[in-house]
Amino acid sequence: MAQAWLRKVGLFGAALLLGGSALTGCSSTKKEAEGQGGDDPISIWASLNTNVSITLKSMNEITAIQEWEKATGVKVEFQHPAVGAENEQFNVMLASSELPDVMFVYGDYSKLYNDGSIIRLNDLIDQYAPNLKRVLDENPEVAKQLKADNGDIYAIPHLRLGEYKTFGGMFIRQDWLDELGLAKPETVDEWETVLKAFKEKKGVTAPLLYGAPPKLSTMGPAAANFLEAYGVTNTIFLKEGKVAYGPIEPEYKAFLETFHRWYEEGLIDPDFATNDQKTFDAKILEGQAGAFFTFIGGGIGRYLPAMQQKDPNVNMTAVQFPVLKKGDEPLFTGRSWEWSGAGATITKSNKRPEETIKALDYFFSEDGHMLKNFGVEGKTYTMVDGYPTYTDEILHNPDGLSVSQAMSKHFIANYPFVGEDDDRYNQQYYQLQQQKDAVQLFSKYSENTLKVSIPPISLTTEESNEYSKIMNDITTYRDEMFIKFVIGAEPIDHFESFVDQIKKFNIDRAIEIQQDAVDRYNAR
Amino acid sequence: MSGRTRKFRFSSAGAQQALGVPSEREEWKPGKQANGWVRLWLNYRKNKAIYWMVLPVVLYFLIFKYLPMYGAIIAFKEYTVGKGIWGSDWVGLQHFRDFFESYYFWRVLKNTLVLSFYQLLFGFPAPILLALLLNELRHELFKRTVQTVSYIPHFISIVVICGMVVDFSARGGLFNSIITFFGGQDSALLSDPSNFRTIYTASSIWQELGFSTIIYLAALSGINPELYDASRVDGASRLRQVWHITLPGILPMIVILLILRIGGLMEIGFEKIILLYNPNVYDTADVISTFVYRKGISEGSEFSYTTAVGLFQSVVNFILLLGANRLSKMLSDNKLF
Q1: Residues A77 and A226 grouped into a single domain
Q2: Residue A410: per-residue pLDDT
Q3: CB contact under 8 A, B302 and A501
Q4: SS (H, E, C) chain B
Q5: CA of A308 vs chain B CAs: smallest distance (Å)
Q6: Quick check: A480 and B56 CB within 8 A?
Q7: What are A304-360's pLDDT values in tens digits?
Q8: Which of A99, A476, A478 to mutate to test the interface with B (most CBs of B within 10 A)?
Q9: What's the pLDDT at A131?
Q10: Over pLDDT 90: what percentage of chain B?
């Protein structure tokens, strides 16, 4: 008895010791074996949207995905990277060459193709994706964005063909404006007056809050909005049709002077550089923030109901993108291109590309389009006079989920995925009047943005390597110096040496690479 | 494990040779070539269990430490995923040159060395002091309580520790409450570059102090109590005892640990820095390993370049280790290898 027990314990111990190495050894061989079988699921790598992760563990559990599997007869299996480590895990996955069948990404597709990670899709689309082919034929502008310089297609896209292409902007505490008898600010000077009033009359710590999403380490969209009032942006853009880099333009210095003054006067959140989503949310919900950048759906749709529950007088409304002179039109509005830039790629490890393409093409068919945007008829929407209307399961969820969370549980409309966004989804997604006004206001000047933003160009592998190497250094440097200039650790007089250093990093070559790519794009 | 017994063993082997006593090896003259393998086999037959027990450790080092070294050759190549490790083009020392000429080279090197040096300067003597203090305590219960309380932080995950530090140093956090209580200014402590090194070093000491003390306490318990009795007869005070008996007693242990620490001088843990820093404090917080992490997998994907940087760090580490070992051999006759 005792001996048998000892032996068991001993074995268990040995298993523990070897466990680490044995497990890693096994998992890779298992994956390969799976890829070869005919009925095995197609693996799809995609980051998990936070609205989904609130109710579900994997996109496999989304109602629309299960319906999609039934309709196409294809089994899929989603692989999700850890939230917050998407970049790291993606890079490690590429380097290890252990790829899933499909990767849903937002990135440098030509580089992925030239590295040999993904395959070219033109012939497959011609043969097996009649619905996508029809969309591309009907929308030559989309086809131009989707194709690389040589005409290759590498991704099954996420498209925005409707009128809604701007999803976020500045929001302000309307109740405070009313209380103080102020009008909505239009110019940077008017903003300064309003923020001062918030500071002095309301005594808040963060009249202008920024720093948080989407990227914590950079300037934050609110700061970029004010910079863009000066006619330049935080990175590369088109200045009168030519590629330019915002931070080395003289307008950037003028912006820094304003922002440094605002910081000194306490008009912007003193903790802007260390804010994360948690502290950002907290400052809004505690009523310390007067104005901030957020998204119409996931941001205001969350903050406003939460705050009105405590105090029904709270009101937040959208403000037009700021400009310098009254009557100017804003140039940068965050308008998305028709192709959002996100798409599903098929990797070289995929043993059944035809089947995969057929399945993905389903989302461009009439049925698939409805499934992606509205879910299942009778359950999540009903047809009222030919208009798909969401049921209470979505709009007034019995389990207390917000609209975005309920949507994410049943279908894939409010974040990028293969298929086309439907305007009728956006019309109902924004339930609050403030949201409906916001989407109109933010889209008002969105055509201007086409003149200043870089189109979906493609770079060669060499160009892409060289460009990312240069820009990596510059971006780190720019973000650090931005903070130093604003908080006064570096006097603004040093702006010239800041520009010199960026030139030393070889920004001219980076601009040249982009200019060539833009020229090639225009020649398509 | 103590250096003194080692020294004894070396000198005895030396004495054997000097006296011309035939050692085991010389007796096995016939079949000299098969010699090693035969002996290994015989030894294996005799001590089977031990060989099997050592196997997982050998495998661990082979798989996780030696095998990955193959990948280090991409430091001399322009690695692309499509061509693979072997198929990528050679670029020689290009990546090393790029790093040495980089704007960030001196900054990350300086930060790495300064942070490590702080850890060594303040972090190394701290557990020795605590061990000496604990050793003088006569109240068992109090001694054990202090010990337990001081080593518990070691078992808390670094993620949790850093989360606490970040919260405490934020505006309105614990540290700021203390500072304002004494009339200071409420500020975001972690966005000031001049605070980073202090916060980093102090929190490390706080977390590891108790646990590192254990090894010194173990060494202390090995000191012959008769020495204390004898010194008391000679009229030595407590301090005298510490100076002449306790410290020399644990000196070999101190030296070995010091060598190990110096060997890992550049190997500053990047997890903790990544959890604590933000672009405000890159000036003092960005070290080689965080630089590699950002450039290599989080913000960029310059695999070859960052491999070269990592390799550079390992080489410097290796040189430091050899230097420390040599120095200690010269000064005190204690050494690692």
Answers
A1: no
A2: 93
A3: no
A4: CCHHHHHHHHHHHHHHHHCCCCCHHHHCCCCCCCHHHHHHHHHHHHCHHHHHHHHHHHHHHHHHHHHHHHHHHHHHEECCCCCHHHHCEECCCHHHHHHHHCCCHHHHHHHHHHHHHHHHHHHCHHHHHHHHHHHHCCCHHHHHHHHHHHHHHHHCCHHHHHHHHHHHHCCCCHHHHHHHHCCCCCCCHHHCHHHHHHHHHHHHHHHHHHHHHHHHHHHHHCCCHHHHHHHHHCCCCHHHHHHHHHHHHHHHHHHHHHHHHHHCCCCCCHHHHHHHCCHHHHHHHCCHHHHHHHHHHHCCCCHHHHHHHHHHHHHHHHHHHHHHHHHHHHHHCCCCC
A5: 26
A6: no
A7: 988 998 899 999 999 999 999 998 999 988 888 888 889 999 999 999 999 999 999
A8: A476
A9: 93
A10: 25
For the question of whether the overall pTM of this predicted structure is more than 0.90, the answer is no
Check pLDDT > 50 for residue B3: no
Please say which residue of A362, A390, A421 terminates a domain: A421
Determine whether the interchain pair A217/B279 forms a contact, defined as Cβ–Cβ distance below 8 Å. Answer: yes
Give chain B positions within 8 Å (CB) of A465. Answer: 78
pLDDT at A195 over 50: yes
Band the pLDDT of A32: cuts 50, 70, 90. Answer: very low
On whether both A453 and A316 belong to a single domain, the answer is yes
Is some CB atom of chain B closer than 8 A to the CB atom of A83?
Answer: no
Whether A345 and A291 share a structural domain: no
Total domain count, chain A: 2
**Residue range of the domain that includes A143:** 2-164+336-421
Q: Are residues A361 and A272 in the same domain?
A: no
Distance (Å) from the alpha carbon of A242 to chain B's nearest alpha carbon? 26
- How far A319 CA sits from the closest chain B CA (Å)? 29
ipTM score here? 0.72
Given this model, what pLDDT does residue B32 score? Answer: 52
Give the closest-approach CA distance of A92 to chain B in angstroms: 7
Whether residues A260 and A379 fall in one domain = no
Say yes or no for a CB contact (<8 Å) between B279 and A273.
yes
* Cβ distance of B278 and A97 shorter than 8 Å: no
Q: Which of A205, A217, A486 to mutate to test the interface with B (most CBs of B within 10 A)?
A: A217
How near does any CA of chain A get to the CA of B52, in Å? 10
Last residue of a domain, one of A421, A445, A475: A421
Using a CB-CB distance cutoff of 8 angstroms, which residues of chain A are in contact with residue B191? 271, 273-274
If asked whether residues A81 and A206 sit together in one domain, one would say: no
Among the partner-chain residues A92, A279, A483, the one whose CB lies closest to the CB of B279 is: A483
CB contact under 8 A, B299 and A91: no
Are both A391 and A460 inside the same structural domain?
no
Check whether A2 has a pLDDT greater than 90: no
Q: Report the CATH number at residue A98.
A: 3.40.190.10
Are A376 and A433 members of one domain? no
pLDDT of A218:
55
